[in-house]
Amino acid sequence: MKRKESRQKRLLLVDDDRDLVESMAAWLRSIGYQTELADTIQAAKRTLEQRPIDLALVDIRLEDGDGFELLAHIRNNYPQIPVVLVSGYASPATATEALRVGAFDLLTKPIIDQELELTLKRAFAQHQMLEENKQLRARLDERYSFQSIIANDQRMVRAFEIIDSIADTRATVLLTGESGTGKSMLARAIHQRSQRRDQPFIEVACGALSENLLESELFGHEAGAFTGAVGKRLGKFQQADQGTLFLDEIGTASPGMQVKLLRVLQEWQFEPVGGSETISVDTRLVLATNEDLEAAVSEGRFRQDLFYRINVINLELPPLRERPNDIPAMADFFMKQVARDAKRDLEGLSDSALEALVHYRWPGNVRELQNVIERAVLLAKGSQIGLTDLPSHISNGARKTMVAATVSGSDLQRLSLKEALEGPEREIIAQVLREFSGNRNETADALGINRTTLYKKMKKLGLEDNPTFQ
What we know:
By secondary structure, this protein is an alpha/beta fold. It has helices spanning about 1-5, 20-30, 40-50, 65-75, 90-100, 115-145, 155-165, 185-190, 210-220, 235-240, 255-265, 295-300, 305-310, 325-340, 350-360, 365-380, 390-405, 410-415, 415-435, 440-445, 450-460; strands at about 10-15, 35-40, 55-60, 60, 65, 85, 105-110, 175, 200-205, 245-250, 270, 280, 285-290, 315, 350, 385. Strand 4 and strand 5 form a beta hairpin. Helix 15 (about 350-360) packs across helix 17 (about 390-405). The longest helix is centred in the N-terminal third of the chain and has 31 residues, at about 115-145. It is flat, with a radius of gyration of 32 Å.
């Protein structure tokens, strides 16, 4: 399998020693590579324009220039192509300069076959890793872009505008709102939109750790600082140097930890647990809480001076129940994201499913919606996510609303109980039939009744020969 992948690689060999380059090309072809030959810089440039090249092997000394000139051309115009320079007289300074200006490696003539083969394998392995990192970066940019945080709500739109204006500053940001409103996702979006995006993003859930463990987690410790500290450990502040540190549930920090955090925010310096060396960091701090910190300050549970320090930029995320107009777009986004990862082909959500999602109160906010959609995508039997693919507490709530709407008001006074219940029963059965394209077995299973009972109800309610369900 590896040999098959190697045959797909095309190498450009640039050397004015014809005998040498042809001999090298013959050997490379024998181990599965395709080769293109050029004896001048101009010939190499023409080949690069005409054919896709996976790697260039370039002699430093050429008739019409040197390999460094071609290296610069490739770096500027074909940055995805690794370049290996070759020289018969390379000094350590030449090797250093080659790597500094972007060559993958420098080989010295006479070239040993095994050395060349190993260099090519390393170059392609590194190129594959860089491509995977590039794809991962693109996925991160997509996932934590503002487009992925669907929002028509004016409070969210305003929050995005503020983030755009402060992303490249060092200003501390405090995210507030109920649990599950997307504070972690917004913190990552802040990081992705800043110049620190290529540096670490470190997240710490403060509420999950005791005071001693949290201190060690944030500031690190020296060997022997406490029982179990068998070695030195870097803290999260130091790991996030030049990047972003996100402290979630900051309202749970103890009074002692609040003092330590205040000093870091004032001086950006600290000492590891059990250590005396003062460490300075350049870390962007984003914090989040679902508590009312102003009330905590009034009650003496949170330091007022620390609150003022972290409340430089305060972004409050509204609960999802106050953003019903955003739910259809968010549900569609999550559905496409999960369907792509799970390799499921889904057209979307049915009208009844969307209506159920919009009218649900979402105590778990965006996180709950995301989990509900992920579950629905994985369990959906049809081409759409239907009402029956949603958790029962959501779908049943929608059906109760449907029943209440049907039997409400003065109509109930004019109908018998039997007549009043037939309307919503007919609508529910019809909706499930539509979701399963008229398949009665699946409809009966979804409704929790046997097939005979379904046939009888369809006949009684006038649904038996309805072509709409086909």
